[in-house]
Amino acid sequence: MEANEIVLAVAEAEASGSGPNTIEYNVTRFVQILRRLGVRVSLAETVDALTALSRIEMLDRNQVRGVLRACLAKSRKEAGIFEQAFGLFFTTPEEKEIRRRQLQEMQAQRDRTLNQAEQELQEVMGEYRKGLSDKGNFTPQQLETFSLLPDSEKERMKDIIQKMKDNQINSAGDLINMVLQSSLNYWRYYMMKNAQQRGEMSPELEAELTGDPDFDEIIRGISGQFYHHPGDRILHSDMESLDDADIPRVTALINRMTSRLGLSISRRYRRSSRAVAVDIRRTIRRNMKYGGIPLELRYRARRKKRPGLLLICDVSASMARHARFVLQFIYGLNSALSGIESFIFSEDMERTTGYFRQSREFARSMTAMMNDSRQWGKSTNLCESLRTFRRMYWDKLGPDTIVFVVSDTKTVAPEAAAGMLREISRKCADVIWLNTLPRREWASRATVALFAGIVSMYECNTLSQLEKSLRRHMFEKI
User: Fold this and answer.
1) Which of 160, 177, 197 is a domain's end point?
2) Are residues 191 and 322 in the same domain?
3) pLDDT digits (tens, 9 = 90+) for 77-128
4) 458 is in which domain, residue-wise?
5) Per residue in 44-75, is it b (16+ CB within 10 Å) or e — as a string?
6) Are residues 322 and 471 in the same domain?
7) β-pairing verdict for 430-435 and 401-407
């Protein structure tokens, strides 16, 4: 069920009844919140929930919670999101107003803190602040980091900037601004990593805001405090920030995810509108309203030929840690699906398919790959790498091939690389770029806009985003 369908259902509920006072209206809005928080809820499941609610005592909160959870949540993670969303959404107007006032006070305090931090940084920059472009502005995250720095570190930073001012150099303002932003980015990463290790904070849940204040209030309230289980933290943490101590748990998570994904993709049947073979599961569900009598049949047919999956993974210095987990994911998926082609690149390209087809542990395969490779940890030249691909591996592409490029878009000669990508996109079914750079940083990277204008680009700096991207695009083609 897409977001626009949900909005339409809300409008219909308002037109047919008393709007916000109808159960249809409120359940539909609740479903929209769950979807924004990453819970997959279909239109059929929403209808099932409304049908089930008509059979229970609506004044019993526990019964309502139990029915909605049974119909809408399908995993431990989704159940955790559901419980928090239910508690925040289905509450009294008085409690909602109290929560709203608290959030407004917290936001006002944060705004005051950011304004004070910006004034201090303006003083540090002094006359060099004039003439800087919009790129010279500090982000809210950087301002917040500066406000949390100890006074001794702030003074040390000011001393460094003062010494830079005393030197006669060109574009001193731009250089000073760059040093400040780099230092604040480092301190933000350092503080977040220490806080996570102490268990004082967790990464935010991947969630989409709607623009509706009532919805966004609940979404923000859940996304900031969802993770209570170590697996949740790892699943949604930036792959670059994961420690070596996390590797055993990461391996277990990847094995479970790839096994489930491989099984789903390798299923031999798909839904069909033609009377080919009866789909028993969907037929039973469809006829529940008739007491189980099969008056309406549903059918299935054999799937089309599965698409070929071709991975091109950046293993340059800025991507080495991300690449390790992406390759491990493909290694696990290759055990369930045959025919996956994999390549790594930095200054040039190398084919790594053979390492994944050997019957040995991933750690041994990874060690052999890194020992044999001449590309690991070098600078990035995507254009030269794709030229090598065209010269040596062009026959690996076909009309059914889906190409996944995993990189942060940093490369020399980006315009020439964009031309090569256009050639590849004309040769295959689709090219999907999985960008390990956080979306909030995309606007500051010209190469992101350049490549996104040619291929489909998605944020992919967590294991959860990686699995979601592969699932979405593999299923679209089968």
Assistant:
1) 197
2) no
3) 788 889 888 988 888 878 778 877 877 787 788 788 888 888 887 777 766 6
4) 308-476
5) ebbebbbebbeeeeeeeeeebeebbbebbbee
6) yes
7) parallel
